User: Fold this.
Amino acid sequence: MTEMENKAVGYTVQQGVATITMQSAPVNALSRAVRVGLIDGIESALSDDSVSAIVITSSLALFSGGADISEFSGGDLSPNLPEVLDKIENATKPVVAVLPGPAFGGGLEVALACHHRITFAGNQVGLPEVNLGILPGAGGTQRLPRLADPATALTMIVTGKPTSVVKLPGVFDKISDKPEHLLEDTKQYLASLNAENCIKRTSDITLTMSEEVQGVFDAVTAQTKKAARGFFAPLKCIEAVKGAYTLAFEDGLKHEGKLFMECMNTPQARAQQHFFFAERAAGHVSDFDKSTPERSIEKVAVIGAGTMGGGIAMNFANAGIPVTMLELKQEALDKGLALIRKNYENSAKKGKLTQEQVETRMALLSGTTTYDDLADVDLVIEAVFEKMEVKKTVFTTLDKVCKPGAILASNTSTLDVNEIAACTSRPQDVIGLHFFSPANVMKLLEVVKAEDTSADVIKTCMKLAKRIKKVAVLVGVCFGFVGNRMIEPYGREANRLLLEGASPEQVDRVLTQFGMPMGPFTMGDMAGLDIGYYVRQSRQAFISHDPTYGAVADRLVEKDRNGLKTGRGAYLYEAGSRVPIPDPEVLEIAKQEAARLGVTQRDDISDEEILVRCLYTLINEGACILEEGIAAKSSDIDVIYVYGYGFPVYRGGPMQYADEVGLGEIVDKLSTYAERLGDYGKMWLQPSDLLIKLAQERSSFAKFKN
Ligand code: 3H9
Assistant:
């Protein structure tokens, strides 16, 4: 038995088999150390006459998470991954990949370059590069189609979705029934190799573009153009895979390499890679560490069984956690529980749940009309009407009935969590858990720490979010926290643009072309214009210095144009339809309001003006939020915007987008419009201090540390 010195990759020889073991925690990313280890291992095995076969495997629960994404921004990349795979595939002794767990991206490409692949049923593999704005660049687009059926290979590469190994019979030479049998099955497989079957190079397989395969390409291309609107990489993936059918293997690899670099050099790739790390970094917070204890959450209660409360409760039932919903009236409670059942039944009809799963989840949900039944819960989430007095009544009662150590959370989207905490005798146990609507669908959770919230409560909630499959971002207390505070200037400018003469459809078009799933007017109509109206009514002091603030929206609500639910808002809607229809009456209302308020309407509002005024002001607010420490880092804001507001992930979030555009440019444009719009511009469009400072230093939000 011989051993090689490389901490990232182990090497042993036993009974004629050289085993190269990737052991680079946490995910065997194919860093330079791993690549060097793989090459060294292959070379050692080839030069050792006692070795007749080579196994590449992993000591972790995962085979490999693929290329090391952190290396994409530079550094010494030699040997590169394609060189490593070339070495593996051209080895003159059989190389067998043994996958004890998932293989993604470059990890799967390593396996595809081996001569044989063994794994167990229940494992998954994938080529998720497209989610990073790139394509598989180490032969994945050439080798996978040579082993898998065309539709599966193409779909895997274009969507990036993981696939069960049992759906890839051509890729795996042996699939053990259980992971425990993998070792024994590998031994048997190795013993079965003989001179004829021992070296099978994927590159030797020739593919042709038949009519049937062309049909697959046409269908996937049409589907991709619809599903991946705005994304650059997916269509490049299709182009690369085409090379597998139309070019010789070596030429196909070169074609893939060229397309890979084309993708890599785009702002989209930078944005999507930024977002990959942003999402993970959101979980790294300085408020607690490994030594901070966690509270046990085995029983949850939700106050309020309306749409929001019901959606929140479903998250816990989905995760197997019993949850009690409280409504003071039995009728409201019954209605809430019935709505949840209806939601689950709908999922079952769509084949997303079995009837058994529906029943299991419903059995975890119970209802009560009395607070006394909440005495033994570990966590209560209040989801009642958004009014401070109502919330205070709830929390005063919870303080009386809940056991010591129970976490008392508010789902408020705007109110002061410190004030709520202050009406209890245990402010250290009070926190905000701001779910986004629909709460059972949206992945984002703003975890709002109040002044006295204890570290263990924060840690428990951040960890709990993972259990219920949410992406949690820790934020501080201010009106609207991060997400809603930043959406305020976005909506404000949209409404003011309407007053100045833009149409709802022009504003919405500019922002959907930018990549937002819908424009601010369509979004407002969907949410209900009355919601914003009541928020404005309750914040008169805040808006009193600008009588034009939300003026058109207010008039729309006063004319019973509350949005989709009333069939008219900023648009008209036909009965049963969600398709917005432009309505000249809205322009007329805006015209009258402009005349009343002394605002001159213009017909020269450009698309650029709309983008700057809606989006750059949102970014500007993000800068204030950063400076105030409401968000700990700019990437947290990006996560909130992508998961909470559908901000296009290929822009990386508003703060990454601003960094990509350049903060100097953002300052210049805001200043230009601040100047051009006179008193209004001076009031609302001035760049913030932090934005100006970072721009002057030629720095970025990403580099800002509070
Ligand atoms: C590629 O392969 C290109 C090639 O085709 C061509 C090259 C020429 N690199 O997600 P987790 C870190 S592109 C660097 O919490 P999980 C991650 O940041 C790659 N770091 O664990 C985190 O760090 P921290 C294609 C990586 O168990 C820690 O590992 N592959 C990488 O929930 C744990 O991560 C992909 O796109 C990486 N590749 O999920 C797969 N992967 O603790 C990307 C992870 O400091 N990875 N890290 O925050 C994943 O999807 C998930 O991480 C995985 C594990 C499913 C593997």
User: Anything to note?
Assistant: The chain has a mean pLDDT of 96.
